[in-house]
Design a protein that fits this description.
The protein is of the alpha/beta class. It contains 9 helices and 11 strands. Strand 6 and strand 7 form a beta hairpin. The chain starts with 10 loop residues before the first strand and ends with a helix.
């Protein structure tokens, strides 16, 4: 079962992306960024992402680590018809469940292939395999369902299918307080603001302050983004960031005078 969140208004998640093609560079992952966007909009904190090869021990090890640490784990990849699609076997092993052809999935796929006048081969039947007792994730794109075991949501790697499955999953999840954010532009680079910004962060532990350097071809600047769940905390930290930037500007003006 999932580990409880440390605060009632915080819901955590992790992602496990599966596939040799991701690690070789043959396939450029598009699912991680999409999941991160959806989690942020839903008030769920995506805390960790792992990418593993199509190797059952690696998948089992990663999945067991993540599912015990976070409220939700989302996987992508490895539930297709080919010999290296072993995610269903690995998830079954992680939970100590038999992996078998699910009767409802077999019916859905059988009907789909009959409609298309295509043979329902043994390879295609592999897409109906899942841990015993798993619940389906509806696949409106290509019919073959994903599945859910406890807090683990197993979905396809094809981005269009992954996104469609995720759309069906999101309304069923427990969500937390959404994170608010405010950007403050600094005309100074990180080298100028780093030490003082660290002090601001320590003064506002209930916020998260990130700095993102920019270069316009002539000089560096920084976008500082303050994030918090509480609006007052966000505003107070952003004010201190602005005051810090003003102080740096005054100091530089004094030295150049």
């Amino acid at each position: 079962m999932s580990a409880p969140s440390s605060a009632s208004n915080v819901v955590s998640a992790a992602m496990l992306a599966i596939g040799d093609e991701l690690l070789s560079g043959r396939t450029k992952d598009k699912n991680i960024g999409h999941l991160a966007d959806v989690m942020t909009m839903s008030g769920i904190d995506l805390k960790e992402v792992r990418i593993v090869a199509d190797e059952e021990p690696a998948i089992v090890e990663a999945l067991n680590a993540l599912r015990s640490r976070y409220d939700y784990v989302f996987t992508s990849g490895g539930i297709g018809p080919t010999h290296d699609d072993i995610t269903a076997d690995a998830v079954s092993a992680a939970f100590g469940l038999p992996c078998e052809h699910d009767a409802d999935a077999m019916r859905l796929l059988g009907e789909m292939y009959r409609t298309r006048e295509m043979e329902f081969t043994d390879a295609r039947k592999r897409m109906a395999r899942m841990p015993r007792g798993a619940r389906h994730i509806v696949n409106p794109v290509s019919v073959a369902p994903g599945f859910i075991v406890e807090n683990v949501y197993v979905m396809a790697g094809v981005p269009q299918v992954f996104q469609a499955m995720l759309d069906n999953v999101i309304p069923t999840l427990r969500t937390g307080s959404k994170i608010l954010s405010q950007a403050v532009r600094s005309p100074f680079g990180e080298g100028d603001i780093g030490t003082l910004l660290s002090g601001v962060q320590k003064s506002h532990p209930e916020t998260s302050i990130g700095s993102y350097p920019k270069y316009d071809g002539q000089r560096f600047s920084t976008e500082i983004v303050v994030r918090a769940r509480d609006a007052d905390a966000l505003h107070a930290a952003a004010q201190d960031v602005s005051a810090m930037i003003d102080a740096i500007a005054r100091e530089k003006a004094a030295h150049s005078a």
